[in-house]
């Protein structure tokens, strides 16, 4: 099961995902990067059904790029989040996409923002959140450790504590994780566990 | 689990003397997992009209966006805000349009008519509208909320008394509800202002 968590800090968003790709009981690879960039300052973390995940993310990313090409300006994170929700909501009552996702982005005006969306097209702006079984173990921990002026180092410490909890208590815990940060300088990998 | 209790909500609206108050809890959850505690379920349509939507949150969001769209068009055409009674009827119609594939959201409309009289109405998921002189509520534990409101409401309350009453009803009504609570937000609408207060309640 895919594991994604996100934490919004003072002027950055940190996301962590596991890096395993598997089909039922078979592990295909252990170094898959599931945090996909939408543009220079936004990323998607999409978990869910096999085909829907990639199909949906590619569809959204292509449309975001098309908007940027047509209008000469990039969309901000809130717009991308609402556009994505709209696509999920429209498809919901015909052929729904079965994916839960996190959207992390940085804009000059709004700063860092983190959005949580589920397969029913429920959209929420959050400070900490996640999807998957692993997130159940992390959310309370994050509630305790989060504060509005979080720094990158504190964020990494939070993530490591969460991952340690998942590894200890989740029966099917993934072995490897990747942590990325989105801030004014773009997207970068902070740690590989 | 019922689709109406997938996310969880509690919304109470009450009428006072030339004022109305509407409040909701702040929990957003997915079945038994709480995700955030800052998601109000009451939306402002205009200064004298507020809409509360309980039920499946995605449908509540979609419905709210559709209604804002229709209200904005109305404002452009009519050059005025929509009356709450008109809005209630429009909402009822919008819900019944989807009779055989409904929005899983139950609304409560609270507002002041142009002459200052309070207006309250509520609907079920397919738009069966019922208006009320005292209170209107919806949510995942309506029995608790009805019990509280029926005993606490009295006619001709002023804005401060009305706020106190709605606050106590909402807080006590949500205490026994696992899916609603985690804070509350209450708007008190009078003819010249809207006062919004956020309450910290039992955080469980």
From TrEMBL, chain A:
InterPro entries: Ntn_hydrolases_N, Proteasome_alpha, Proteasome_beta2, Proteasome_bsu_CS, Proteasome_sua/b, Proteasome_suB-type. It comes from the Eukaryota. GO terms for cellular component: cytoplasm; nucleus; proteasome core complex. Pfam families: Proteasome. It is found in: Cytoplasm; Nucleus. Coiled coil: none annotated. GO terms for biological process: proteasomal protein catabolic process. Keywords: Cytoplasm, Nucleus, Proteasome. Belongs to the peptidase T1B family. Component of the proteasome complex. Component of the proteasome, a multicatalytic proteinase complex which is characterized by its ability to cleave peptides with Arg, Phe, Tyr, Leu, and Glu adjacent to the leaving group at neutral or slightly basic pH. The proteasome has an ATP-dependent proteolytic activity. Non-catalytic component of the proteasome, a multicatalytic proteinase complex which is characterized by its ability to cleave peptides with Arg, Phe, Tyr, Leu, and Glu adjacent to the leaving group at neutral or slightly basic pH. The proteasome has an ATP-dependent proteolytic activity. This is Proteasome subunit beta. It comes from Edaphochlamys debaryana.
Automatic annotation (TrEMBL), chain B:
Keywords: Cytoplasm, Nucleus, Proteasome. Its main location: cytoplasm. The keyword Zinc-finger does not apply. InterPro entries: Ntn_hydrolases_N (IPR029055), Proteasome_beta_3 (IPR033811), Proteasome_bsu_CS (IPR016050), Proteasome_sua/b (IPR001353), Proteasome_suB-type (IPR023333). It comes from the Eukaryota. GO terms for cellular component: cytoplasm; nucleus; proteasome core complex, beta-subunit complex. Gene3D superfamilies: Glutamine Phosphoribosylpyrophosphate, subunit 1, domain 1. One of its GO terms (biological process) is proteasome-mediated ubiquitin-dependent protein catabolic process. It is found in: Cytoplasm; Nucleus. Component of the proteasome complex. Belongs to the peptidase T1B family. Component of the proteasome, a multicatalytic proteinase complex which is characterized by its ability to cleave peptides with Arg, Phe, Tyr, Leu, and Glu adjacent to the leaving group at neutral or slightly basic pH. The proteasome has an ATP-dependent proteolytic activity. This is Proteasome subunit beta. It comes from Edaphochlamys debaryana. The lineage of its organism: Eukaryota, Viridiplantae, Chlorophyta, core chlorophytes, Chlorophyceae.
């Amino acid at each position: 099961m895919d594991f994604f968590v996100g934490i919004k800090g003072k002027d950055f968003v940190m996301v962590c995902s596991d890096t395993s790709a598997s089909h039922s009981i078979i592990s295909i690879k252990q170094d898959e990067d599931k945090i996909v960039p939408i543009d220079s300052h936004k990323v998607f973390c999409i978990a869910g059904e096999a085909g829907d995940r990639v199909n949906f993310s590619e569809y959204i990313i292509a449309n975001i790029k098309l908007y940027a090409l047509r209008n000469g300006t990039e969309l901000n994170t809130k717009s991308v989040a609402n556009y994505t929700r709209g696509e999920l909501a429209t498809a919901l009552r015909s052929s729904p996409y079965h994916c839960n996702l996190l959207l992390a982005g940085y804009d000059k005006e709004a700063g860092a923002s983190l959005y949580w969306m589920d397969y029913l097209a429920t959209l929420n702006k959050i400070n900490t959140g996640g999807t998957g079984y692993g997130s159940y173990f992390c959310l309370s921990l994050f509630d305790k450790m989060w504060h509005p002026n979080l720094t990158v180092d504190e964020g990494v410490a939070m993530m490591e504590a969460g991952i340690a909890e998942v590894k200890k208590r989740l029966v099917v815990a993934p072995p490897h994780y990747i942590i990325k940060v989105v801030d004014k300088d773009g997207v970068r990998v902070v740690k590989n566990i | 689990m019922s689709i109406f209790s997938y996310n969880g909500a509690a919304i109470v609206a009450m009428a006072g003397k030339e004022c109305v108050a509407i409040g909701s809890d702040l929990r957003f959850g997915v079945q038994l997992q709480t995700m955030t505690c800052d998601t109000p379920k009451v939306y402002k349509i205009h200064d004298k009209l507020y809409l509360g939507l309980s039920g499946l949150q995605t449908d509540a969001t979609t419905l709210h966006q559709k209604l804002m769209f229709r209200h904005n068009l109305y404002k452009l055409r009519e050059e005025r805000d929509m009356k709450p009674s008109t809005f209630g009827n429009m909402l009822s119609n919008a819900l019944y349009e989807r009779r055989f594939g409904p929005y899983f959201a139950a609304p409560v409309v609270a507002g002041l008519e142009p002459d200052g009289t309070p207006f309250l109405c509520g609907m079920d998921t397919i738009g069966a509208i019922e208006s009320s002189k005292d209170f209107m509520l919806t949510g995942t534990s309506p029995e608790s909320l009805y019990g509280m409101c029926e005993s606490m409401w009295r006619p001709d309350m002023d804005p401060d008394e009305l706020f106190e009453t709605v606050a106590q009803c909402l807080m006590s009504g949500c205490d026994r509800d696992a899916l609603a609570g985690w804070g509350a937000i209450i708007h008190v609408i009078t003819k010249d202002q809207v006062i919004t207060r956020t309450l910290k309640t039992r955080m469980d």
